[in-house]
Amino acid sequence: MSTLAIAAGPRSTTRPGKAERPLDRLEDVQIDAATGVHIGTVHVGKQRLRVGIRPAAAVTTQPPLLLFNGIGANLELAGPLMNRLEGVETVIFDVPGAGQSPPPARPYRLFTMARLARRLLDQLGYAEVDVLGVSWGGGLAQQFAIQYPKRVRRLVLAATSMGGATMVPGHPRVLLKMLNPRRYRDRGYMQRIAPELYGGRLRDDPAAIRLFTDHARGGHPVGYRYQLMAMAGWTSLPWLWRIRHRTLVIAGNDDPLVPLINARLHALLLPNARLQVLDDGHLFMLTRADETARLIGNFLAEAG
Q: Is 2 a catalytic residue?
């Protein structure tokens, strides 16, 4: 369980005489005292979603940043990064079946999840967003960008690929460990597999492993299986050239899950992309949150 302090807040209501903000549309809001993320719930049709919003530190003209997390990951794992992106409002949600969003009634495909994300943005009142996708969420970010290009200004792809069918894979022994979500709820198991699974700082730094275990929450096993199924057979390769948004591709040079060559291919095939390589593994957004936030913040703030 996380050691972050959570300060309970009242159920959000619209203030009379003022335009309703996205924060006002969350229900049963709590504020994470360590990161400033407002965490509440939103019903999108019959699906209840757990949503986190961290307001920008000051008034800004930049669109908010929508985050798509990795497989099985709860929104708290992105809290340290969101806390450091002070110049932009950030939005994230637990994918159905991950974190504390209940699993959906049936399996889905990535285009279905992209549609759910678009409907969530509609309910929160966001017209245009920048999009950041991490690992599994990088596939969803690509799908969202091609499916709703007018809703996206810029794109950030982190530790991700063009899909299981077309990625340059890691070692099969490493990939097999991804089939089990046990690492999200069993600290001892995570400590044993983290070096081989995630690489980088997690190879020899117990504090880096604790960053994960302190923030991780186990989701529903059905939800995890649905996430695996959603990615089965999916690839962005046939239409990647059609994503014209300015794109920042970030990768670790010691990533056992998604080898660096995948990021190089992304940067080569996307028309308006550039690559940034960090000296770390798959979880650099957690273990090198300061540097990652600085790269993303500078990219989103660039003119043009």
A: no
